[in-house]
Amino acid sequence: MAKRLNNQSTIGAVLQQIIQVNKLGAGMDQIDVKEAWRQLMGNGVNTYTKNVILKGSTLYVELGSAVLREELSHGKSKIVKMINEELGREVVKDVVLR
């Protein structure tokens, strides 16, 4: 049976406990990384972004433009740093552009 929380818990604390108990952290990270990519890259890059997938600590980004893929490949470490700063924790360690 699930542990009953006292009446003075915040909604955030309850949600964090639900995420932790049900092992939903990886799925939440996937959603957070997709949103961070969308916000940080802007409309120009998002137009050519087909898919963003987080597997473990590697971010796979499928792009529809070879020129854009080549341009972004020069700044992979900056992309990792920007996404991790946006999320406030180290989630992404590597970026693979396809």
From TrEMBL:
<dbReference type="InterPro" id="IPR007922">
    <property type="entry name" value="DciA-like"/>
</dbReference>
<dbReference type="Pfam" id="PF05258">
    <property type="entry name" value="DciA"/>
</dbReference>
<protein>
    <recommendedName>
        <fullName>RNA-binding protein</fullName>
    </recommendedName>
</protein>
